[in-house]
């Protein structure tokens, strides 16, 4: 995916620190300084591996190899190919500023996400990141869940969010859905691609 310039979009009414956030089951709060110097919060699923360390989870019955993410690396991670785009008009589109925060965080953090089969089977879409009213999600066809999960890189998320902001904004709101082929692995540990759904959507959408 190509890199594009980030917009310094005006901030929406986001909580500036994690102390301001209402605790959310299954999510861990991370404070993040935006490119314009303002601080916002990014929520990350607490079943995930953050900064290379496994986090405790309040969720019972989660398999040890549920989604583990973000996994920190020493380079940007581009794991997906070209995407399709849809963005039907909907009053629940999240504010651009909220989604822009997700895009900036993804561009600024060299990580990748691996959503395992167990996690993909448990819900229609798996949330990777949340900021304000905006969340970035991934999923797959329910009848074709890849055995070794889906791998999505920080560059993939950043590019999708910023391309959406560049082309899909309406009344300072943005949303988009699409499909693309992202990395997975085979029984021998080799890399191949698998059909992947993604979405930039409002937190009210399950």
What's the structural blueprint in terms of helices and strands?
Blueprint: E1 27-33, E2 39-45, E3 49-50, E4 53-54, E5 68-72, E6 80-83, H1 96-108, E7 111-115, H2 117-122, E8 125-131, E9 134-139, E10 150-153, H3 154-167, E11 176-185, E12 191-202
Antiparallel strand pairs: 1-2, 2-8, 3-4, 5-7, 6-11, 7-10, 8-9, 9-12, 11-12
Helix pairs in contact: 1-3
**General form:** globular
What does the average pLDDT come to? Answer: 80
- Helix content bin: 10-25%
Give the structural class: alpha+beta
> Hey, roughly how much beta strand do the residues contain?
25-35%
What's the main sheet like?
Answer: 7 strands, antiparallel
Domain module tally: 1
How many strand units? 12
Task: Give the neighbour order of strands across the main sheet.
Answer: 1-2-8-9-12-11-6
* Terminal CA distance: 27 Å
Number of helices: 3
Order of helices and strands: EEEEEEHEHEEEHEE
Radius of gyration: 16 Å
Spans where pLDDT lies below 50 across 5 or more residues: 2-6, 48-67
């Amino acid at each position: 995916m190509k890199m594009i310039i980030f917009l310094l979009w005006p901030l929406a009414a986001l909580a500036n620190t994690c102390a301001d956030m209402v605790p959310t089951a299954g999510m861990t709060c991370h404070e993040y300084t935006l490119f314009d110097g303002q601080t916002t919060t990014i929520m990350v699923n607490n079943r995930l591996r953050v900064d290379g360390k496994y986090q405790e989870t309040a969720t019972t019955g989660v398999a040890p190899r549920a989604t583990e993410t973000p996994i920190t690396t020493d380079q940007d991670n581009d794991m997906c190919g070209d995407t399709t785009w849809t963005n039907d008009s909907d009053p629940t589109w999240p504010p651009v500023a909220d989604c822009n925060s997700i895009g900036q965080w993804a561009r600024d953090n060299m990580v990748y996400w691996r959503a395992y089969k167990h996690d993909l089977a448990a819900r229609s879409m798996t949330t990777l990141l949340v900021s304000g009213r905006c969340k970035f999600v991934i999923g797959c066809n329910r009848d074709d869940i890849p055995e070794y999960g889906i791998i999505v890189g920080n560059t993939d998320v950043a590019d999708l969010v910023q391309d959406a902001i560049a082309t899909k904004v309406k009344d300072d709101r943005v949303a988009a859905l699409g499909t693309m082929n992202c990395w997975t692995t085979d029984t021998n540990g080799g890399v191949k691609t698998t059909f992947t759904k993604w979405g930039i959507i409002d937190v009210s959408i399950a």
